[in-house]
């Protein structure tokens, strides 16, 4: 569809869309894996968004939903894109029931802006991201999480209510605005990790947490993978209650890998001191540092971003926590077999993280294949960021699982014309 045809379509769908000024021709920076959209549309109300989806479904226009655009490179290559539909104008904190520790926010609000607003009442939405512009809708759609997942879980775990715009033009609510709520279908979980392939997220209600009064991070380094795995097991089976418990493993230049654990304690100062003393006795590390204040914030910011600021494919992986030593051995073997660099960053106590592999296309594809072949060690492998050549040779989502038929049935029910995220999502 040409741009004039798109503009004519929008005029016939709802002239207010054009009159709002939320329409422009898509440029090269809007392309996804080389697929160029025709136009970008920014509805300024949930009703306008729902109507746009309904009109597009009737005309079978292909749509990619976009928040901050920080993760558009994730997923498969789109089959085609007529419209990018952005939630940028839907960016308000709609309600903050600080007495109940809940908040309702629109999908286009960034996590940073939301937490700055919530901090006025000494509360926060306990999620973290590797990208400054990550929006609430985008984090739900990709189920993106970071180090605080250890204590607070993923976006899916914190959702208590959600509002969606569907391709038949409806605005659908599920859940509610209180924590003890069981009304309706659990659409929040269904949307989490759907990559925008089922419906458009309009707003969401989350459980919040109080801001901790103090924080200190213990940084422990190790000489070999067995010592690191034993330390993780010791902490995991102890009475320690870290706010974050992360690992970083890097095989780059030099014969020895870099093996680091980061353990953050966020509570009262007295409780932090007691837990650090206990952790020191458990870890048997080669070296331990304590980091606080601005240096601590910088440490975790750099840790969250390190995989995304270097070249190579980034692959999301999951593993049973007890299998960590096998995971570390596998990463080491991939490094020996030709990768110019390989890094693992993840949640040590949960068994989830990401692997970055740099090297030529064949090296990156072979690394993905090795990860998928070790089913006794690695249980889930999804290619997040990669060059198109890698995506074409290593299926982004991997072999279809047992639930694929059910997922396709849900896709058909919610998006019968197949207009949303065609080719990019898991179904």
Summarize the structure in words:
The structure is a single chain. The protein has 427 residues and is of the alpha+beta class. The chain has three domains: 84 residues, Uridine Diphospho-n-acetylenolpyruvylglucosamine Reductase, domain 2, CATH 3.30.43; 115 residues, Uridine Diphospho-n-acetylenolpyruvylglucosamine Reductase, domain 3 (2-Layer Sandwich), CATH 3.30.465.10; 180 residues, Vanillyl-alcohol Oxidase, Chain A, domain 3, CATH 3.40.462. The strands form four sheets. It has an eight-stranded antiparallel beta sheet with strand order 15-12-14-13-17-18-16-19, sandwiched between helices. A five-stranded antiparallel beta sheet has the order 5-6-10-8-9. Helix 9 runs antiparallel to helix 12. The model has no long low-confidence stretch (mean pLDDT 91).
Strand content range: 15-25%
How much helical structure, as a percent, in the residues?
25-40%
Gross CATH architecture of the largest domain: 3-Layer(aba) Sandwich
CATH class of the largest domain: Alpha Beta
Count of distinct structural domains: 3
Question: What's the pLDDT, averaged over the residues?
Answer: 91
Radius of gyration: 22 Å
What's the shape? Answer: globular
Do you know the CATH topology of the largest domain? Answer: Vanillyl-alcohol Oxidase, Chain A, domain 3
The largest β sheet comes out as: 8 strands, antiparallel
What structural category do the secondary elements indicate?
A: alpha+beta
Q: pLDDT under 50 segments (min length 5)?
A: none
Number of helices: 15
Across the major sheet, the strand order is: 15-12-14-13-17-18-16-19
Give the total of beta strands: 19
